Amino acid sequence: MAQIRTVKCPQCGASVRWVPENRFRPFCSERCKQIDLGAWASEDYRVPAAAEGDPGEQSPSGRSTQD
Ligand SMILES: [Zn+2]
């Protein structure tokens, strides 16, 4: 019996089966995927690991993200 790997949806934390037919992996659904992409696009996304202690609102150069 093949084991199906599961991951957690980065958006809502739901269990997601990592299978080829899941087009939205690692997200659980298109909705979560769109939410995540939308957040990136609006630069309102905060990555905990990338937190540099600077809110960014007062940075002279503004954007510190390069990618
Ligand atoms: Zn989700």
UniProtKB/TrEMBL annotation:
A single MF term (Gene Ontology): DNA topoisomerase type II (double strand cut, ATP-hydrolyzing) inhibitor activity
Metal-binding as UniProt keyword: yes
Chain ranges passing through the membrane: none
Chain positions recorded as Zn(2+) binding sites: 9, 12, 28, 32
Gene3D superfamilies assigned to the protein according to its UniProt record, in alphabetical order: Erythroid Transcription Factor GATA-1, subunit A (3.30.50.10)
Keyword list, A-Z: Metal-binding, Zinc
Cofactor binding note of this UniProt entry: Binds 1 zinc ion.
Cited Pfam families: YacG
Region described as Disordered: spans on this chain: 46-67
Positions with biased composition (Polar residues): 58-67
Cofactor(s) demanded: Zn(2+)
Record InterPro entries: DNA_gyrase_inhibitor_YacG (IPR005584), Znf_NHR/GATA (IPR013088)
GO terms of biological process kind: regulation of DNA-templated transcription
Source domain of life: Bacteria
UniProt record similarity statement: Belongs to the DNA gyrase inhibitor YacG family.
Function, as annotated: Inhibits all the catalytic activities of DNA gyrase by preventing its interaction with DNA. Acts by binding directly to the C-terminal domain of GyrB, which probably disrupts DNA binding by the gyrase.
UniProt subunit comment: Interacts with GyrB.
Record protein name field: DNA gyrase inhibitor YacG
Species whose genome carries this gene: Aromatoleum tolulyticum
